[in-house]
Amino acid sequence: MILSPAKQPIFILDSLPKEIIYTIFDYFWAHDILYSFLDSSAYINSIILTYHNYHVNFKSILKRLFDLVCCSIRSNQITSLILSDDNETPCQSKIYFSLFPIEEFINLRAIRLSDIENDTLSHLWMIETIPKLKRLIVNKFSDHDYNQENSLSAISFFYLRNLTLPYCSYNQLRQILRSAPKLTSLNISLIISDCTGIDYFAEQHQEVPLIINNLTISIHTFTRTISRLLFERFLSRMPYLQQLELNVISGGSSNLLEGNQWELFIQKYLPLLFAFNFKFKIINIDRNNYHTENILTQFRSSFWLNRNPAWYVTYDINDFILYTIPRFAPHTIKHSLLSISPHSTTLPAAQYFTYYNQINELELDANEKSSYQYTNVQRLILSITKIDENILDLSKVEFLCVKSISWSLKKLLRIIKTSMIRLYHLKIDFSFSLLELSDSDSLAQIRILDLSEFIYSCKKEDYDLSTVFPYVERLTIRITSLLQMFYLIDRLMHLSSGSFHITNDSDNTKELSTESDLHKWFTEKTKRLRKNNSFTYRLDSQSDFWIHLWMSSEIERPKKVLNMNVPSGRLMELRKKNIPCLSSRCCLLL
């Protein structure tokens, strides 16, 4: 706030033209815009209402923020959308498309789907009604048995420029290359189960060269041989390729490792290529016939090294893997392992920091001294009871997993509060008693808590979990009864996502798995869900019994704003009908 000449407070953003505020909004997710700026002034509210370039990211979103976006933003204001049906946000896509049908997203240019349920995938053909859609990314299917080929065969790829699929058969690949003439970027994991598939992959007949300039292909086959010659036959029809990434696990042929031959092929058929990253793992082969230096020598020519950036490679003799760095340098490492050797890479010793800078997850499993420092570690795993702060910066750690049962929890909490100022995700990977924390201050910074090995008890003599971790928003925990789950839901006021692993309560879980009115069952057992029944859940009993809940916070419930962009009749219809989710084991509850 600033003061006007009349000494009246003025919100500083009210003095800016709306075009500048539009530009500011372009750098934020939709829920960040609403959470930060909504109701700050009437002027800003009017801009929020008229802004038409919202980027909506519902991946791991809190339920109250999801509700806020649904109540505040119309579908025609959205240009990019990320949806996820994972265990943190079960049935999300079903809820959202029930409120906003796909065909209403007339300005959508990009959509990303992760862990999406089958019912949503079955409606993907409707994206052809979205005239501006240029990017489709499917990161992961929730059901690996789902026949994706049927859904994909119904999609029109004609206008797509960018496509990512988690699994793709050679038939699907052939369809994509034939029906997507404007495609410039393709990222697929190719399924090849027989020799016919290999032949189809290599012999994709095209009347004209493909205009693809960015290609990423992953092929994992343990029974078939993928050779460099197959890739050459496939890639020779892509003269405009600028960025290429290959990730191959294959048996038999080692000619993928022949740098001299790759050099000749690229110079002849891929003249525009400026980025080439690969990871080749060869299995079922006599490794004694292949020597590290003989392989690396082929990647030390000026073709590989005299470019900016250079194409450096590393050879892992233990696992028979050749990969480029920094792209495929490991991001996870155990401190006890020797990280890099001058005999296994073309990377100059003066640039070894490039290798270590890629590591963002470190497991301290030995008290060995180190001559190097990990500067970008954000995830720390403790398998020992000593932390050498000379090899990493604890202030950058955001995730901490404690495996050693010898740790004093009080000491651990003190270290977190004093040194790990950015830590928000804590996993304690052993069983303990909360009584050990009875004299400790609360950890207000923890938002994600994983106690999957801890057996919770809500007896009076035990210590209240909500006292130690009062602001937890996501919880994974093992419990011995459904009553404990109800207790935690009511006590953890900020909880939005809960994954409860239930053991030793077979009678109640059997009743739960067969009861028809699950909405009534939940609202009767918990005060919180009875008061605010905006929640979804998924039951998983394939191996152990899990309940995954996604619910609005007890602290704040979004209200209807800006004339409510979802028709009130549609919301009331959903509430009255209790529309079920696609699976009998997953239910939408509004």
Helix tally equals 21
Identify low-pLDDT runs.
Answer: 557-590
Radius of gyration from CA coordinates: 27 Å
Main sheet characteristics: 11 strands, mixed
Overall SS class? alpha/beta
Mean pLDDT over the residues: 83
| Count of beta strands | 24
Helix content: 25-40%
- Record the strand order, biggest sheet: 3-4-5-6-7-8-9-10-11-13-12
Shape: globular
Q: What is the terminal-to-terminal distance?
A: 38 Å
Organism: Rotaria socialis
InterPro entries: F-box_dom (IPR001810)
Protein name: F-box domain-containing protein
Domain F-box: 10-61
Which key features would you list for this structure?
single chain, alpha/beta, disordered C terminus, 590 residues, 28% helix, 11-stranded mixed sheet, globular
What secondary-structure arrangement, pairings included, does this model have?
Elements: E1 2-3, E2 9-10, H1 18-25, H2 30-37, H3 42-50, E3 54-57, H4 63-72, E4 78-84, H5 92-99, E5 110-116, H6 118-121, E6 135-141, H7 148-153, E7 162-169, H8 170-179, E8 185-191, H9 195-202, E9 214-220, H10 228-235, E10 243-251, H11 259-269, E11 275-283, H12 292-297, H13 302-305, E12 312-316, E13 321-325, E14 332-334, H14 352-357, E15 361-364, E16 379-382, E17 399-402, H15 409-419, E18 425-428, E19 448-455, H16 465-468, E20 474-479, H17 482-491, E21 497-502, H18 506-514, H19 518-525, H20 527-531, E22 535-540, E23 545-551, H21 568-577, E24 586-589
Parallel strand pairs: 3-4, 4-5, 5-6, 6-7, 7-8, 8-9, 9-10, 10-11, 14-15, 15-16, 16-17, 17-18, 18-19, 19-20, 20-21
Antiparallel strand pairs: 1-2, 11-13, 12-13, 21-23, 22-23, 22-24
Helix pairs in contact: 2-4, 8-9, 9-10
Domain F-box: 10-61
Protein name: F-box domain-containing protein
Organism: Rotaria socialis
